[in-house]
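hey so i finally got around to running both of the ones u sent me last week. sorry it took forever, my laptop kept dying halfway thru and i had to restart like 3 times lol. anyway pasting them below in the order u listed, first the sequence line then the structure token line for each. didnt double check formatting much so if smth looks off just lmk and ill redo it

first one:
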Amino acid sequence: MPNIKSAKKRMRSNAKKADVNTLVYSSMKTAIKKVEKDVKNKDKEAVSNSLNIAVQRIDKAAASGLVHKNKAARLKSRLTKMKNNME
């Protein structure tokens, strides 16, 4: 346990940031899984909606540095390819 005031504050802020990062990352992964599920069910309208949401969540994670920009681009590319090859 830290004794210094700034170290105590750093622990509190790190805990808050960890909670936010976990929320952003898990919502991104959930959105990706939803797109994959909709592609599997061959529901074009649902895929379009869920793909838009997934892209937004991926961009948010990349902007905050949670995932690398190249990984974000790769994820978006794979999801878009899934949608386009769905026919």
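and the second one:
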Amino acid sequence: MTCDDRDILEVLKEELDFIDQGGYGRSVRTPWKPKSPFQDSLTCLNYGYPYRAHPCNECHLLDFVSPEHHAAEVPCHFIPLNDAGETIEDLESGDNEAKLERKVRDWLRGRIKEIEEKRATQAIAGCP
């Protein structure tokens, strides 16, 4: 169980918005350097903390990671992004940033839709 008190739906929406606005890519104001999905975005609990102030097990994204990868240095990079089981870890090694962002974007949209539908169903049923 995570200790993250943020709403997972809002975290996923913020991440999608970050990607849609070019979050991991190049900026005309800063030199290009590779960025890593989830880890290098404002949605990461440790964004801006050079010494990882929060353990990854406090983050909601751990709920999407299989137990065998919970102890990984960056567990969110082992979230299966599609039916083929591709992960950020797999896609980063392929060195195709556009493909990686497209897969993460698709995964985010799918999870957002899933959570919204579940919450709508619960609201109709009168569940908290």
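quick thing i noticed on the 2nd:
The mean pLDDT is 83.
anyway thats it, ttyl
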